[in-house]
C-alpha cells in the first residue's frame, strides 16, 4: 500500500511540475504559425490554458478512479484514457508557451479537487465509475467544440490540437459506454457542468 501511495504521489507531482511528453506526433506539427493580433493571441492563450487545466483535472480524476476501480477492465480503460490525456497535456502545454503564456496557477487546486472526485466515483462501484468517465468526456467534448468555434480565425495550430483532443475524448466516452457505464442522474450532471464552468472562468485568466 505504501508503494502504491508513493507511485500515485509521483504521478501527481509529474503532472503538476514536470513537462509532459507525447508518444504521438503533435497535431499541429506541420501547420505554420499564423499572424495573430495581440487580442487574438491573448484569447487563444486563455482558451488553451483552460484546456491544459482541464487535462490536469483529467489526470487527477482518472488517477482517483483507477485507484478505487474493482473490475480490471474498467481500471485498464481508465489507465488508457489517462495516457492519452498525458499527450493532451503535452500538446496544450507547448501551445501555451508558443503563444507566450504559462499554465494556470490554479492547477494544484483543481488537481486536488478532481482527485477527490475520482476516488469518490470509484467507491460507488464500477458502473458508476464508468458513468462518471462517460459523462465527463461527453461534457469535455462539447466544451472543446465550443473552443473550436471561439478560436481566432487563422489559428489553425490551436484548432488542430483542440480537434484531435475532442475526437479522443469522445472515443473515451464511447469506450466507457461499451464497458457498461451507468447514466448519471441529471442533478449530478448539472453539478459537473457547474464545476467545469468555475474551472473555465478561473483558469482562462489566471
UniProtKB/TrEMBL annotation:
Check the record and name the CDD domains matching this protein. Answer: DMQH
Cofactor binding annotation: Binds 2 iron ions per subunit.
Q: From which residue to which does any coiled coil extend?
A: none
One function term, GO molecular function aspect: 3-demethoxyubiquinol 3-hydroxylase activity
- Similarity-based family: Belongs to the COQ7 family.
Any one GO CC term of the record:
plasma membrane
E.C. designation(s): 1.14.99.60
What cofactor does this chain's UniProt record say it requires? Fe cation
Instruction: Write down what this protein is called.
Output: 3-demethoxyubiquinol 3-hydroxylase
Q: Which organism is it from?
A: Chromobacterium alticapitis
Membrane-related topology note: Peripheral membrane protein
Q: Give the UniProt record's GO annotations in the biological process aspect.
A: ubiquinone biosynthetic process
Subcellular location per UniProt equals: Cell membrane
Amino acid at each position: 500500500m505504501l508503494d502504491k501511495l508513493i507511485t500515485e504521489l509521483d504521478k501527481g507531482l509529474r503532472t503538476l511540475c514536470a513537462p509532459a511528453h507525447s508518444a504521438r506526433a503533435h497535431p499541429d506539427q506541420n501547420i505554420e504559425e499564423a499572424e495573430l493580433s495581440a487580442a487574438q493571441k491573448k484569447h487563444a492563450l486563455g482558451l488553451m490554458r483552460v484546456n491544459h487545466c482541464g487535462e490536469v483535472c483529467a489526470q487527477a480524476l482518472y488517477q482517483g478512479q483507477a485507484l478505487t476501480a474493482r473490475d480490471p477492465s474498467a481500471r485498464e480503460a481508465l489507465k488508457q484514457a489517462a495516457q492519452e490525456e498525458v499527450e493532451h497535456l503535452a500538446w496544450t502545454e507547448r501551445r501555451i508557451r508558443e503563444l507566450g503564456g504559462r499554465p494556470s496557477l490554479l492547477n494544484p487546486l483543481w488537481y486536488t479537487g478532481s482527485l477527490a472526485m475520482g476516488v469518490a466515483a470509484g467507491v460507488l462501484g464500477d458502473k458508476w465509475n464508468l458513468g462518471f468517465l462517460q459523462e465527463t468526456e461527453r461534457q469535455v467534448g462539447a466544451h472543446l467544440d465550443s473552443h473550436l468555434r471561439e478560436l481566432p480565425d487563422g489559428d489553425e495550430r490551436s484548432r488542430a490540437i483542440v480537434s484531435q483532443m475532442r475526437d479522443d475524448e469522445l472515443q473515451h466516452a464511447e469506450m466507457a459506454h461499451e464497458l457498461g457505464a451507468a447514466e448519471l442522474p441529471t442533478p449530478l450532471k448539472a453539478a459537473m457542468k457547474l464545476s467545469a464552468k468555475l474551472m473555465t472562468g478561473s483558469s482562462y485568466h489566471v
